[in-house]
Amino acid sequence: MKTEEADYLIIGAGIIGLTLARQLRERFPGKKVLLLEKEPGVACHSSGRNSGVLHAGFYYTANSLKARFTRDGNAAMKKYCRENGLALNECGKVVVACDETELKALYELEKRGRTNGVDVRLIDEKELAAIEPNARTFQKALYSPSTATVDPVQVNVSLKDQLLKTGVAIFFEEGYQELTGANTVKTTKGRMIKAGHLVNAAGLYADKIARDFGFSRDFVIIPFKGIYLKYTGAEAPLKVNVYPVPNLKNPFLGVHYTVTVDGHVKLGPTAIPAFWRENYEGLDNFSLPELFETASYESLLFLRNSFGFRSLAFEEMRKYYKPFFVGLGKKLVNKLDADRFNEWTRPGIRAQLLNTKTLELVQDFVVEGDAASTHILNAVSPAFTGSFPFTKWIIDSRLNN
Which of 172, 208, 235, 327 has the fewest CB within 10 Å, making it most exposed? Predict the structure, then answer.
């Protein structure tokens, strides 16, 4: 088979791959951009299974890539939605405290937000009642007016349609199989493609592909399953996103309420350790090698109790018991019809990077590579929010030659 050539080959047509391709087409209109996507369409995994929340950028320390891109990404994604007639719910968010012990972390979030140039402010209980009457807090809450929600599938499909109209080639149902030579890859359909520069944006499998190129030596992706409960009552119990104060030592934000782009309310998500990378439901996409790999790392984390993994695992498994799950949500509101949270949403998998030397979950985005290839690792939340400035930075720092 004749080897095909591309100036830029992107593996993965998720939100990172799509926004990267869009900006490459705009920056270098004469270059050939090609995407490989193993699924029949876009948004089949994390990019289409996330909450749709456009985060504001106050969770992250000032020296992190997440802080750098979330604030600007929030504005960029809103702009894209408005310009393309996509749904956008500018509902805002409040972070509430359950007791006095959580106030210190709440003040830290406000400090991070202000340092990052984000519009956030501390409010008292009276101000909270005016913004969201059903939210409950202890003395203070943090208000983020710029937080919003979108339909992530709609955004991905819009980007895909625009790319195809501008001549970007997307090979669906055709994934990466192996590296065969100097920046030449073989696809799952046997196609050979030689890339001027290859970008690995493969999400759940980014670490495996990176290792073929000599990268991701100290990292492995550990999958965590996220599920929400949807409220099915006639009148939504909230109009604003309501979040708890998170544990700042791990990357999960805790069980919270999300107001979707169409006004529905979801409670969640879970962060349940999964047993293989696409362990969405039952034995779908079962992989014995992945089961062995994931189970071995999770067993090690459990035995050593790294970053409190033991208690995290126990608590997350308890969330399969609906009364316990809904009970966590009750702490954040004044009143709740628990019986109306009765519809489980489509599961998502968080491709969480683990440092195999320290056995700690990696908090920030990780990008490795050289002149021939770039590998985007740990592109977890808020990667959807930050996708436009994140991929612009990748082009400016690695591909602009």
Answer: 235
Q: Could you tell me which residues are beta bridge partners of residue 272?
A: 225
**Cα 227 to Cα 250: distance, rounded to the nearest angstrom:** 18
**DSSP one-letter string for 121-183:** EEEEHHHHHHH-TTB--SSEEEEETT-EEE-HHHHHHHHHHHHHHTT-EEEETB-EEEEEETT
Sheet holding 348-355, edge to edge: 272-273, 219-226, 348-355, 360-361
The 3-class SS string of 270-329 reads CCEECCCCCCCCCCCCCCHHHHHHHHHHHHHHHHHCHHHHHHHHHHHHHCCCHHHHHHHH
SS3 51: coil
CA pair distance 369, 372, nearest whole angstrom: 8
Q: What is the pTM of this model?
A: 0.96
Neighbours of 203 (CB within 10 A): 25
Tens of pLDDT, residue by residue, the chain (401 residues) = 689 999 999 999 999 999 999 999 999 999 999 999 999 999 999 999 999 999 999 999 998 999 999 999 999 999 999 999 999 999 999 999 999 999 999 999 999 999 999 999 999 999 999 999 999 999 999 999 999 999 999 999 999 999 999 999 999 999 999 999 989 999 999 999 999 999 999 999 999 999 999 999 999 999 999 999 999 998 999 999 999 999 888 889 999 999 999 999 999 999 999 999 999 999 999 999 999 999 999 999 999 999 899 998 999 999 989 999 999 999 999 999 999 999 999 999 999 999 999 999 999 999 999 999 999 999 999 999 999 999 999 999 998 76
Q: Which is it for strands 4-11 and 33-37: parallel, antiparallel or unpaired?
A: parallel
Q: How far is CA 164 from CA 16, 22, 79, 158, in A?
A: 16, 10, 21, 10
Q: Note if the bond before 323 is cis, omega within 30 degrees.
A: no
Nearest of 168, 332, 204, 211 to residue 265 by alpha carbon: 332
**How far is Cα 316 from Cα 304, in angstroms, rounded to an integer?**
18
Contacts with 67 (C-beta within 8 Å, 6 or more apart), sequence order:
57, 60, 61, 112, 116
- d(CA 141, CA 320) in angstroms, rounded, equals 29
Distance in angstroms (rounded) separating the CA atoms of residues 179 and 94:
47
Contact (Cβ atoms closer than 8 angstroms) between residue 381 and residue 55: yes
